[in-house]
Amino acid sequence: MKKNFIRGIAGLVIIIIMCTSPAFAKVWARINGTVKTGEGKPIKGARVNLIFVEDGAKYELMTDKKGGWIKVNIRPGAWTIGFSAEGYEPQNINVVLSAIKKNQPINIRLTSIPKSPLSKGDTLYHQEKYAEALREYQRVLAENQDLYQVYEKIGLCYYRLDDLGNATKAFKLILDKEPGSRNVLINLSAIYLQKGNLEEGMKYFKQLDEESLKYPNIFYNIGILLFNNNQMDMAIDYFKKCLTRNPNYIEGYFQLALAFLNKGDMEKAKINFRKVIELAPESGMAAQAKEMLNSLK
Questions:
Q1: Which of 55, 169, 174, 231 is 20 to 30 A removed from 104 (C-alpha atoms)?
Q2: Facing residues of 50 across strands?
Q3: What is the pLDDT of residue 13?
């Protein structure tokens, strides 16, 4: 009798220890669900991001071939759950998960993003199949007369195919609809400068707000076109604008050096050749700069 009593007390102590131990005191929640299309088809590989509201702890899951997902041993409380998949509009929900009651499955249906009629042409363009892309854009335009934005794409194709006349016509058609289009103004400026029409080229470029142009390559490319047109003072000005936006743009220093060299300013040419070597000592451009410096001694 006494032994049974001792065993009972010992068992009770073990239970108390187990229940008060941190490993057993923690109570977890469990949640699962599915991600499907609007038509109810499973989406494999959809992302499910769970964020704990209290401290921002995160989990990222992927759906299986049936669109299913599950997370066990998760803290109870408020969670934000985001669902996303390529080609679909993302969706977020807020839920409070329980560790005591069973949490109902979260079954989400994502709305597909309408496919752009220009997507096929864009793919061909990025594959550098410019003639095929042009035909595709022209087909889209024939079926969608109001889709004037396609003229910019057509202009780019003609430009890549070195048909500057038709490229100019296409860009001007879009400019009639969007007079302040930055890309179109830049492209028209580049075309006229490439053709040697400095006045017309700069007319379009001057319509741009230069302060809003943050990319150095825009000014670099304009500088190259001016350089090729033997407009050294203007080329120098644009190479300097390029370098103002990116002081490590080694091509800008190299071309600036060449422009000064063409003007007969050897000292400034040397300064910029040395800058190329300083910034990229192991580059091919640095090797050319060293050769130029040796020839100027």
A1: 55
A2: 59, 81
A3: 47
